[in-house]
Amino acid sequence: MPGSGVSINALPKVSLHDHLDGGLRPATIIELAEAIDLDLPADTENDLADWFTAQATSGSLVDYLKTFDLTVAVMQTHDSLARVAREFVEDLALDGVIYGEIRWAPEQHLTAGLSLDQAVDAVQEGIEAGIDRVAQAGLVIKIGQVITAMRHADRSLEVAELAVRHRDLGVVGFDIAGAEQGFPAADHTEAFDFLARNLFPVTVHAGEADGLDSIRGALFDGRALRLGHGVRLAEDIEIGREDQDNTYVTLGPLAQWVRDREIPLELSPSSNLQTGAIAAWGDDMLDHPFDLLYQLGFRVTVNTDNRLMSGTSLSRELALLTDAFGYDLDDLEALQLNAASSAFLPLEEREELADAIVDGFANA
């Protein structure tokens, strides 16, 4: 732990990349599944949690994504969406998160008759209920929705219009997600053009299951302000040895562009290991290029991606990085300030968030 007696859980944190359908409580899945007669692969909370983690640890993003068939299945009604969103907020607050962005794809939650707008309203209702419950417990949290379009589908313009329609009703950004390879950002040019015309913030999943071309597409076709994962940007960094005692690092043009413009990387260490996103470097947390990117001055942020599938929390991800790379409180504070600076919030609110982080760490 970074400093004697300091609890990472108690430190103020910012969560930017956390999927709603990847953060359900196992107990909630069991209850919701029973209500719709959905068979589950396990009957108890612990066994179900273990099943998700085991299934997600496949080394393949495509196989990892299959676990969502089950969680999405129990999130098809107003009440189920509101409940999952409420519990999601409560769990973030208990983990010390003071600002969180919840991303999810409304187009995947319409089989019981909800419209896109009704689905978004249901999640927002749950978010607000969660914020109220958190406040009753003496905690403070702010939440924004990031509306996601599925990159293999053809509804991205419709979903972009949905996001903009709800921009003053809890939605703060737009994302595309799903199977990355073979589905470039360029396939969604019409949606990204619409978002750009409406000055609406965009993050794009890129550099997870595909490489530099995907990242390039996210930046230039998607006009992404942040990169969802982006871990494979490290493929554009060359590390060489001058002699026995000295090494050198050379940034390729794409890496140079991302670093110099401080484009945030939404890194998710445990998830990146599970999906094989860092297979080029190894299969252990020590092999993750997180520290390389951090030491080179990239705006790296720490995220959970899917807390259920990875059996994790933001505090746990920070602890894993601390154990692997020897980070201290100053490092953890820098990472949270990176996230605060990258939030899809107005400048004044980002500054207030940064002040809250500085105060929280100073009093740790």
Features:
single chain, 364 residues, alpha/beta, TIM Barrel, eight-stranded parallel beta sheet, 16 helices, metal-binding, Ado/ade_deaminase, nucleotide metabolism, adenosine deaminase
Characterization of this structure:
The protein has an 8-stranded parallel beta sheet. It has a two-stranded antiparallel ribbon with strand order 7-8. The protein has a single domain (8-355), classed as Metal-dependent hydrolases (TIM Barrel, Alpha-Beta Barrel), CATH 3.20.20. It has 16 helices and 10 strands. The longest helix has 21 residues, at 116-136. Strand 4, helix 8 (189-197) and strand 5 (202-206) form a beta-alpha-beta unit. Helix 5 runs parallel beside helix 6 and helix 7 (156-165) packs parallel to helix 8 (189-197). The radius of gyration is 20 Å and the shape is globular. It is of the alpha/beta class. The mean pLDDT is 95. This is adenosine deaminase. GO terms for molecular function: adenosine deaminase activity; metal ion binding. InterPro entries: A_deaminase_dom, Ado/ade_deaminase, Metal_Hydrolase. Belongs to the metallo-dependent hydrolases superfamily. Adenosine and AMP deaminases family. Its cofactor is Zn(2+).
In short:
The chain is of the alpha/beta class. The protein is 45% helix and 15% strand. The chain has helices at residues 26-35, 45-56, 61-65, 68-73, 78-94, 116-136, 156-165, 189-197, 212-220, 253-260, 269-274, 290-295, 307-310, 314-325, 329-342, 347-362, and strands at 13-19, 97-104, 142-150, 171-177, 202-206, 226-229, 237-241, 247-251, 265-267, 300-302.
